[in-house]
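Batch manifest, entry 17 of 40.
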Amino acid sequence: MKRIVICADRKFPRGDAGANRILFMAKALLETGWDVFVISTGRSEEKYYDKASGCHVYEGVKYKNVAVAPNRYVRMFQHQFLDGKNTVKLLREIGLAAGDVVLLYSTLYSFSSAVIEYTESVGCRTACDVVEWHQPFQFLGGERNIRYKGYKRYFDELVPRTRNVIAISGCLERHFAALGCRTAVVPIYVDTDSRPSWKRSLDHDRLHLIYPGNPYRKDDLQAMLRAIDMLGDAQKRQVCFHLTGVNRRVLRASVPGEERLLDALAEKEIVCIHDWMEYDELMRLYRKIDFALIARPDNIVTQANFPSKVPELMSRGIPVITNRVGDIAAYLDDAQDAIIYGAPTAQACKEAIERAIAMTDEQRIAMSKRAYENAKLKFSYHLCSDKLDQFFSEMR
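Output type: structure tokens
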């Protein structure tokens, strides 16, 4: 049986979007006969331990986690200097051999270099899963930032060294193909098998928009707020923009120069900030949301990235209002399962919101249903099974 080991510095199996990506790729590979094993970081829940295999198993995926220190500062040191070495120990423990394949999911130089050096010594084939193209403006101090310097070494030196790249976008695929790497594009996928049944209610008289997560230096929350502020007074009374996932302090840091606008819209209850929500509470909120609002600047970061929020929300029947940047617009149909606009400006965003306001309840419900149905047609993880199987089977 073909064996692939996914090595990631993520909290698997349920830590973040990265952990979800690893899980769905692992399940896709299981469908084509691969023996998949994940080595990651984080606390392992005892309820997932399987005595027969001597490891933890989550949704059919076997995994072992590098133990993490409970102290935050010790954990930071461990992440920077020890996680890679401890991952190599587990690779030895499971008997990594020359016939195996290793997929590396990390942007940390110390972690990646430790794993790559060991896989090269064993003689097994190695690939990198690349999901970001970070730039200096995302880091405090820019190019002088030590974290950015480490990331750049990973991106410029380590990824091409493996000569095999899974890229989340066409932008990244073209970059590494030009460097002589063998590449495949694998965007964000979701599990549409276990999603709740589609359900929409008509129990509200406002247009409910949502932005979930942290927009810091990736999504353009400033443009979203300005767009809403540019609406007429009557239109503003028809809109409620929900912000979830981070607290007000983080949101204010994400809109330098527009902090007062954020506060003013929140005071008028045009913007509703949810500091923390339990899962069930968030799911109840999702059921009354009409659209996700995700404005993005047009730069190398957003051209290379693929917003995980879009497939996740579509799979719950929430269409998205977003602009054309990167690959995501190619997967959406304007006026069918999304509202797509062109220029990355507040004015263009405002006009897109006005399109949503002008829709009837029946039109919004129809778009919600199409978004739900199209999530399975466009973003189900089953769609990448054959592509991943071919890529890893033919690795050199």
